[in-house]
Amino acid sequence: MMKSLILTAALAAAGMCGAHAQSYTIRGMAPESENGKTVYMTNAQGQTIDSAVVRDGKFAFARDDQGIRRLDLGRYYTGFIAEPGTITVDLNDLKRVGGTPQNDSLAGLLGRMQKHYEALDKLWADSTLTKAEKTERGKANGERYIAQVIASYKANRNNFFGVSALLEIAYNLEPERFLALYQEGGDAVRSDSSLKSYKKAKESELTTSSGKPFADFEGTDSTGRPVKLSDYAGKGKYVLVDFWASWCGPCRQETPVVAAAYEKYKDKGLEVLGLFVWDKPKNLGKAVKDLHIGWPQIIDSNNTVCDLYGVQGIPHIMLIGPDGTILARDLRGEGIEQAIAEYLR
């Protein structure tokens, strides 16, 4: 399942850096219905570092630190950048954070983000457009939005707002594009733990991209017997590899598509292999039965294969050629059969 790119979630995961503490205050507003409840401030690790009680629809903090933080009041939340000055936060409205230079910039980015996702919702609700037209326009809108965020990042690549901007688009960037932007960053970017994780994943994705040989790994089958990817891949047949989990709704939606492709091409040299990831081994049997899956499975018992391939979200489906060369990655929907048909006619 694709990991959500809502900026406030990225802010919560972002790291902090800086040479010394700097004073700031927060003047916050919250719904009157939340009077008497507690606003929690969390750090990069999700640990609570401070709290304040809402009184008469207001709350306040005074601290000496810097970095990217998150405020939580039940279903009301937002991220902000701790920097010198008086920061204003209104938990009634996600994008109403400001008062200091980086937080004013953050408010602008949050506003653009909100408009972008509202435009996408409107696009997909338009019954006058075909699915292909929606996909094409959605892709174009996404590229325009990414270009705007990249411009914001390039102008702020030495501060925490730059970190939050790059985190907002990191998931959707091709490895080469992300790594180039990361290399342009200053200390705040280079020391951020979330961006370091993205860097590692993008590098792994690059080394296992189309045209590269598959990377082998060892897991277990449903009986606990050791089994390797190389037991199937590189053995003279095309292998469609499906990274999935029992709890993943989109994975379940792709299963009939994979099954149809398997039935159509199995006599022409296609095999399908499931990689059961980010799940408990005991959940495999029921999921296979419920979904009528008829191809072998490897359980990623050591939680290594997604890191090996830089997979950041599932389902992730790739096609490996007879000689072990990766032919295509991140296949979905109609693209699955289209990729197979290119080689097996």
Automatic annotation (TrEMBL):
The entry's keywords? Cytochrome c-type biogenesis, Disulfide bond, Redox-active center, Signal
Listed Pfam families: AhpC-TSA, DUF4369
Q: Which GO terms describe its biological process?
A: cytochrome complex assembly
Which domain of life does the UniProt lineage start with? Bacteria
Thioredoxin domain segment(s) = 208-345
Signal peptide location: 1-21
Where is the protein situated, by its record's location annotation? Cell envelope
Q: Known InterPro entries for this protein?
A: AhpC/TSA, DUF4369, Thioredoxin-like_sf, Thioredoxin_CS, Thioredoxin_domain, Thioredoxin_ResA/DsbE_sf
Give the UniProt entry's GO cellular component terms.
Answer: cell envelope
Q: Which SUPFAM superfamilies match?
A: Thioredoxin-like
Instruction: Provide the GO MF annotations for this entry.
Output: antioxidant activity; oxidoreductase activity
Its recorded name reads: Thiol-disulfide oxidoreductase resA
